[in-house]
Each structure stands twice: as C-alpha cells, then as structure tokens.
Amino acid sequence: MFKLLIDTSPLLNGHSHRGVGQYTRLLTQELEKNPDLAVFRSDRFSATPCEADIIHYPFFDLFSPSLPLWKKAKTVVTIHDVIPLKFLDYYSAGKRGMLSLWRQKMALKSVSAVITDSLASAADIIKFLHVASEKVTVIPLAANPLLQPAELSIQRRVRNKYHLPDKFLLYVGDINYNKNLPQLIKMLKFLPDEIHLVCMGKNFYPHDIPEWRWIESQLALSNVTDRVQFITNLDT
C-alpha cells in the first residue's frame, strides 16, 4: 500500500485555527478516507521519511525553516502564497528572516512538486522563489463540506443579536495590508445604498496601527461609515 506522511505541525501551533490549520486538518481527514493510501501524521521533528513513499508539507514558511534541506523520500510542499515577498515594504523580515528565506529556497530545490492555490500564486512562486514551472501545480481550495445554511431560527437570532442589515457583504479575517480592505470599503459607494459591509475579526477595533488608520481614512473619504459594521467577537 502507498504510504503518505503528512507534516501536521500546523495543527500543533498558532496556525491551528487559521487557514493553514484548516487546510491541513481537512486535507488529512479526506486523504485518510482513501482505501488505497496509508496516511501517517507527524510533525517535522518526529517524522520518519524513510518509511514513506511521499512526504507532504502542507505549509511553507518564508522566514523560518519549515522545510528540511535533506529529504529521504519524494517530497511535496504546499505554498499558499508569497505575499510578503511581493510587499516587502509592509512585511519586514529582518536579517534573520532573510537568511531563513535563502535557506528555504535551497530546500525547495530538491522537492518533487509544489502545490499552490491559484494561477497568480503559481506565477509568484516561480518569480520570487525560482521554482521550475513544471514543478508547480495549481489545486484551488475547496469549501469546508460542513458549511451549510443555518436554520432560520438561528439566522434570526444572530441577525437580532448583532443588529445585522437585511443585505450585506461579509468579510471574515484580519486587517493585514494584503487584504486590501480600504479598496473593499471604497467599492461600497458604487453599490446600492441598501447593501452594507460587515467585517468580522479580532482586530476590527480602533487602535494605533497603520492598517487601522487606512481603514478609518477610507471610511471618511468614501462617506460610507454608516454602512460598515465591525464585529470583533462572535458568540452565537
């Protein structure tokens, strides 16, 4: 039977509840359903690659050593994006981070394949990490199969609790520069007045960082403050 070893480190650290953790968790669960695969879970410190036919690293950290330099089995790595390399002015890595980036590029040279989420990310990986194009395969992300419309009673309760408008766009996530939230807010003024924007995430509150100041400035410039709602804590 074909043996697949998956590095499940993202489930054991701060990535567990972020996108990388969800990707690792759901991918592993689905692969374990395949009767033709023997799937083994392991973090990168206790992995036994010599026993596996293929090792999959579902996360690639640009600025820390997440990928081993020497590999004892065919290796596949998922690189979701390289946004910090596209916007270096907004993602300072420091000298240690740039040294780790050089090391990570070296580690990539001996992988068998790279998986990424989109054609745009594939082009960036080829450009910034110098990975051969024939090694890069685009596999778009799928929705969590557990995502289903809630019962009407639950919908009404949530709408009432958070005073949600009848029609709105929902954004869930952080306020990082690459999320381009000022542009999302600007877009609102070109939509009908009855459509609002609801932003949910732990950082949607006034604090003295550039990302929040950009949001406040765009709200004022676009004159849509009364159509934008921020939710920092969701408790249904």
Task: Give a brief outline of the structure.
The chain has 7 helices and 9 strands, in the order E-H-E-E-E-H-H-E-H-E-H-E-H-E-H-E. The protein is of the alpha/beta class.
CA gyration radius, whole angstroms = 21 Å
The first-level CATH class of the largest domain is given as: Alpha Beta
Q: Give me the CATH superfamily of the largest domain.
A: CDP-glycerol glycerophosphotransferase, N-terminal domain
Helix content: 25-40%
Let me know the average pLDDT: 90
Tally the beta strands: 9
What's the multimeric state? single chain
How is the biggest beta sheet arranged?
Answer: 6 strands, parallel
What global shape is seen?
globular
Strand content: 15-25%
N-end to C-end Cα span: 45 Å
Give the strand line-up of the largest sheet.
Answer: 2-1-3-4-5-6
Number of helices: 7
- CATH fold description of the largest domain: Rossmann fold
The total number of structural domains is: 2
The string of secondary-structure elements, in order, is EHEEEHHEHEHEHEHE
Assign the structural class, choosing from mainly alpha, mainly beta, alpha/beta, alpha+beta, or little secondary structure: alpha/beta
Low-confidence region ranges: none
The CATH architecture term of the largest domain is 3-Layer(aba) Sandwich
Give the tags:
Rossmann fold, single chain, 236 residues, three-stranded parallel β-sheet, alpha/beta, globular, six-stranded parallel β-sheet
